[in-house]
Amino acid sequence: MYHLFRTIDEPCGLTVTTTERPGGVRVLTLVGDIDAATVEALDEALATGDRLLADLSRVGFLSCAGVRSLLEANDRAELAVVVGGHAVTRSLEATGADLLLECYPRTADALVALAAAVAPQAGPDA
């Protein structure tokens, strides 16, 4: 299985679990609320890695600070975002971030998209 696994428990109500997947994809599974009190944990998790998948399907609240963090990570890395809850979708749509971020309904869809982005293109001789 995947041997690199780390959980960061924040007392303010956000848990970030990081899993390394094949192809250099770092999957961040976030549980709880992302607000001014917890955004530092999100910033830290998004700070490393060139290919990131942020699974927000178990996030109950996403503040503008969280949206900013996602947009900054998107500027420096390849980022896919899994949205599941209404609160996250609403925050992304209200700020227009849904137009800038690659958003997916399920983790599997995001992983397929990230894998396709680095798959070698078949040439005319293939």
Q: How is this structure best described in words?
A:
The structure is a single chain. The chain has 126 residues and is of the alpha/beta class. The protein is 34% helix and 35% strand. A six-stranded mixed sheet has the order 1-2-3-4-5-6, sandwiched between helices. Helix 2 (64-76) links the parallel strand 4 and strand 5 (78-82). Helix 1 runs parallel beside helix 2 (64-76). The mean pLDDT is 87.
Order of helices and strands: EEEHEHEHEH
Return residue spans where pLDDT drops below 50 for at least 5 consecutive residues: none
Structural class determined from secondary elements: alpha/beta
Overall pLDDT metric:
87
Which percent range fits the helix content?
A: 25-40%
* DSSP summary, beta strand count: 6
Q: What count of helical segments does DSSP give?
A: 4
Strand content: 25-35%
What would the principal axes of the Cα set say about the shape? globular
Beginning-to-end CA distance, first to last residue: 33 Å
Give a summary of the structure in a few sentences.
By secondary structure, this protein is α/β, with parallel strands linked by helices. It contains four helices and six strands; from the N terminus they run βββαβαβαβα.
Q: How is this fold's topology laid out?
A:
Blueprint: E1 5-10, E2 14-21, E3 25-34, H1 39-46, E4 51-62, H2 64-76, E5 78-82, H3 86-95, E6 102-104, H4 107-118
Parallel strand pairs: 3-4, 4-5, 5-6
Antiparallel strand pairs: 1-2, 2-3
